[in-house]
């Protein structure tokens, strides 16, 4: 659980909310199974990332994680990394063979991100984030919806999710600048700190307005969502210290989860107020 704790708000909650909102059909057993499947795949990503970044980065940013806390060493973590890959492949095969492409796609993305070092540059990192979110969202949506093929609503939702992640995911890097610098990573907040904050402000406002209009959300809900996006963007731009950035990132994940829920209006028409 400690491997996945910090990314529950980043991966598990937004992806589960997305799949539940986008899935064409719903049932409680499939919902619960989809959440477990998503968490297992998040664990695969988290163990891979933490086993390759090692304890140096997390000793600065997240000292409670298993490696810097001394609960497991780096060699054991890398063995566990491959164990989680096998578990996820077997889990997907057991549930539904149509889930295997999502698992393989997520594995390839994490391999490129960690083993091939694409996490070290902001452009490569953003593309890997798109691949990671898209594959896990597609798998979770298929599982929760009990469908082999995604319809037009699901495909549009996945595309928009990828675009949102690509243009706003630097939000996760502001609070981790010190740890990323230790590892020699070139994240956008390190490469272009002023531009990164301005970009985050502008994209959060633009996506808030755009998503609300695209899904036809009612004035009350769209107004609240737009206000949240503007507030989170303002915080990232104006409050520039690690403590504020961590709080802003929590709010960003609330905004991201809300953005992932918006497609439910295309299914059920419940956000008309």
How would you explain this protein's 3D organization?
The structure is a single chain. Helices cover 75% and strands 0% of the residues. It contains twelve helices and no strands. The N and C termini lie far apart (39 Å). The model has no long low-confidence stretch (mean pLDDT 90).
Helix content: over 70%
The biggest sheet amounts to: none
DSSP summary, beta strand count? 0
> What separation lies between the terminal Cα atoms?
39 Å
Runs in which pLDDT lies below 50 for 5 or more consecutive residues are: none
- Note the overall shape: globular
Radius of gyration, in angstroms, nearest whole number: 18 Å
**Helix-strand sequence:** HHHHHHHHHHHH
The secondary-structure class comes to: mainly alpha
β-strand amount: under 5%
Number of helix segments? 12
Mean pLDDT, all residues: 90
Summary tags:
273 residues; mainly alpha; 12 helices; 75% helix
Q: Layout of helices and strands, plus pairs?
A:
Elements: H1 8-22, H2 28-61, H3 74-95, H4 100-115, H5 122-145, H6 152-168, H7 177-182, H8 188-191, H9 193-214, H10 219-238, H11 242-261, H12 264-268
Helix pairs in contact: 1-2, 1-5, 1-11, 2-3, 2-4, 2-5, 3-4, 4-5, 5-6, 6-9, 9-10, 10-11
